[in-house]
Design a protein that fits this description.
Among the domains are: about 1-40; about 270-435, Leucine-rich repeat, LRR (right-handed beta-alpha superhelix) (Alpha-Beta Horseshoe); about 460-510. The chain contains 17 helices and 19 strands. It has helices at about 10-15, 20-25, 30-40, 45-55, 80-90, 105-115, 165-180, 195-210, 230-235, 280-290, 310-320, 340-345, 350-360, 380-385, 410-420, 460-470, 490-505; strands at about 45, 60, 75, 95-100, 130-135, 150-155, 190-195, 220, 240-245, 275, 300-305, 325-330, 365-370, 395-400, 425, 430, 450, 455-460, 480. Strand 13, helix 14 (about 380-385) and strand 14 form a beta-alpha-beta unit.
Length: about 500
Amino acid sequence: MSFALTIPELLENIFLHADQVSVLRSLFVCKQWYIIGRSVLWRNVEGPKHFRGLVLLLGRLLGFDDDETDTTQVAFVRYPQAVAWSRFEKHAHCVRVMSLKDLQKYREVFHVMAEAKPSFALFPNLRTLKYTATHEDIQHCIHFLHSNVKRFIFSTTGPPNYPPQKKQLYYDHLRFLVDAIPRMSAIQHIEFIIDSSSNDITIDRFVGVIKHIPTLESVVLPRYTLTASILAEFASLPRLSILQTQSGAEGSWTASDPFEPDLPPDSFPALKKLTLSATPLNVARFLSQHPVAARLHTLALDLDEVEPEGLPTLLHTVASRCTALCAISIERRGSNSFELNWDSIIPPLTLNSFAPILRRAALTDIKIEHEGLFRFTPAELNDFAGRIPHVERLVLHGLPTSHLSEIRLPDLLVFARRCPALTTLGLVIDASKVDDLPSVNLPEFKSLRCLDLGGSYIGSDTDSVSFFLARICPLGCKLETWENQEWRPVIDVVPLLVKMRVFHSGHPTEKT
């Protein structure tokens, strides 16, 4: 055997990049390969079947069935002996990451393991725990919490149709879990996602527990739960750099919270990423009053109230106060009625609305979802694209989609010419008029990997749209829409047309 294949670091790197079957075969080569291969095989435990493999080291199981709908409880045939625990611990020490769900059938197993385990931590080297729970197995999560866990990601959905007694049991289990979180005394990242019906009952208790953990660097809460009072609770954490809510999830939000957090001047000394849920004017007021705005690198906003001048005011405040900002995301949705005169409620966003933030050279990620329209003249659109040659992600989606956008298909050429750094472009366009599409000297996007056309309208001539997009999209660019079946022929054929174009253009260095 080559000496190089006896170097532990090299062997571990090889096994990490090999498939599981190859690593299993390598276990029989020699003792050194067995020890290193075992540590790689059990480093990540994903799902109940993988977890069952660990439990089987303690002894045979009775009542197991691969059918996930089967509610039969799993139990040990005999009480685990010392030899079995020794065998289990050799493998359990290898585990670094666990992703678990559907463990409700293991109640008896966990009861025995908790009663007979020789040490407090079943998996002492566990660093990351991802646990997706039902109302029946929340309490099992407790067995994996200890001082070496650095990342904890927990999610569950409540029992909305359950009788009061079972609901109360669910809430009791959640509180029990929250009270056990201090076991992870060195936790750095914690993500706690629960159903909206449990927010009022659990979130305040959860925040009251974790605000005393000084090692916290990142916290993710359910959507719309980061109120002014909760924001103030985290203000003194010295290492907290990320304070966000779950993006794109369901949730309920009301304007009852005036969002006027009372923060001392030295609050959030390390904060870089922040999510806020409030009205545009309230967010603008907060950013203008607190020094933390100048340190933010990423700002995500959930804005749910219609204010005619709110968004332009907010963008102006962001430009003047958030001097270190690299990424901004704004999701703003009001009424879903398509019969309202949206222009009379919310003025369309124009170049003047964006002008303040476009002066920030460090801003490379811009995402704005707005109920109204984005209104640009051709000259303004050209000016707008010329101001953002450094932007890598630009998403401007207008809602509701029943309004025809004033941005046309040929307007994509402006971004292809003037925005060489774009990797993601999201626009709502009107692709129904294809008679005047240019066909010569079309520029190609240089770095684009995703073209998100959202709720764009398309006419019956999908072939012309497909040929046009295939001329300007680079190889590997993904085309996306909001589940609009009328775009399906375009999405299916454009990648093939791009490959044909690259092949016939004679670029052998590009992969086809």
